[in-house]
Amino acid sequence: MDLNSLQYFYEVSKDLHITNTARRLYISQQRLSGHIQRLEKYYGVKLIERDPKPHLTRAGHFLAKYAEQILHLERELQSHFLDVSHENQGVLRLGISSMRALVCIPEIMTIFQKSYPAVRFMLINGMTAQFYEKLMADEIDLFVGLGSPPYDGLSIVPLMSEQLYMMVSDQILSEVFKEDLTSLKVRLSQGVRLKDFYTQPFILPAVGNNVRRLLDNIFLREGIYPQIVCESLSFQLMARLSQLGVGIAFLPQILIKELFDLKSFCSNRQINLFPLDYAEARHQIFLASRVQHYTPRYISCFYDAAVKVFSTYEKLPDLLNSQSNF
């Protein structure tokens, strides 16, 4: 049996579209079809029917199930042999949101590649529930997740507790609260409630974003109909607009250190960052892999690098409170 043909058949079985699969695998449709025909000849069965539309036969479903297991064992065997031979090679398939990848992957790779320069990264974008499904299907090796993992079969490493912050100008604070700004900022540094700002303009993430879903739930629960002046997928743009006094924006804790030089930001007394005073505005970020699976040494190294990098982002509240902004 040719493992390459088995791999190609397994990939075709996922979407049953020869053209799309061939494009994704960077091979010709003719070559891909040849691999399927080779397997059908080897096993003496029909694996894919093409009328009225492509679908797996009963034998095809059976082979796809076992192909997943065989290919997983093959990857584990290769990883084990690479560890034994000290070649320090391999592929690390990581599920992570594009936002968190932008912030933390450059720092993690800088640390990681000092020990494993020959290991290749494959970053898969998505959400926690999708990552769990991909991990169980052996399509990724580990993922950076969000929240409290209600899933079985995971090995969890906590990375940080992340807070959602409100970004608001002194001008808006003066319009909302008729009190001394210095003492007000000290009070608000302990947490803010959206109902106190319901008359002000808001700059929100686009619908579908996790932060937007969280904010919409709070708005709904508190009976707030926000005056939205801008919606965007770019947290950088939203932060910039808030700095200019256009409205109130919201930033995940992990992004703040990436977007701003904290020393210069905190010396600017006209813009402020306050934590939201809601339980759902704080959540856990964790690193997850499957239990009882062989773990190459380079994945253990990735764990160590990730914990080190994320610990610097968890220190943000202390950094903010130590500055003169409050």
Structural account:
With 326 residues, the chain is of the alpha/beta class. The protein has 14 helices and eleven strands. It has helices spanning 3-15, 18-25, 29-43, 58-85, 98-112, 128-136, 170-176, 181-188, 210-221, 235-243, 253-259, 262-267, 297-314, 316-321; strands at residues 48-49, 55-56, 90-95, 119-124, 142-146, 154-169, 201-205, 227-232, 249-252, 271-275, 282-290. The strands form three sheets. Strands 3, 4, 5, 6, 9, 10 and 11 form a seven-stranded mixed β-sheet that branches. Strand 7 (201-205), helix 9 (210-221) and strand 8 form a beta-alpha-beta unit. Helix 1 crosses helix 3 (29-43), helix 1 (3-15) crosses helix 4 (58-85) and helix 5 (98-112) packs across helix 13 (297-314). The longest helix has 28 residues, at 58-85.
Short description:
The chain is an alpha/beta fold. The chain contains 14 helices and 11 strands.
Q: What is the average per-residue confidence, as pLDDT, rounded to a whole number?
A: 83
Radius of gyration: 25 Å
Instruction: Give the percentage of residues in beta strands.
Output: 15-25%
Q: Which bin fits the share of residues in helices?
A: 40-55%
Q: What spatial form do the alpha-carbon principal axes imply? A: elongated
Number of strands: 11
**Count of alpha and pi helical runs:** 14
End-to-end separation: 68 Å
Question: What structural category do the secondary elements indicate?
Answer: alpha/beta
Order of helices and strands: HHHEEHEHEHEEHHEHEHEHHEEHH
Pick out the low-confidence regions.
322-326
Largest sheet: 7 strands, mixed
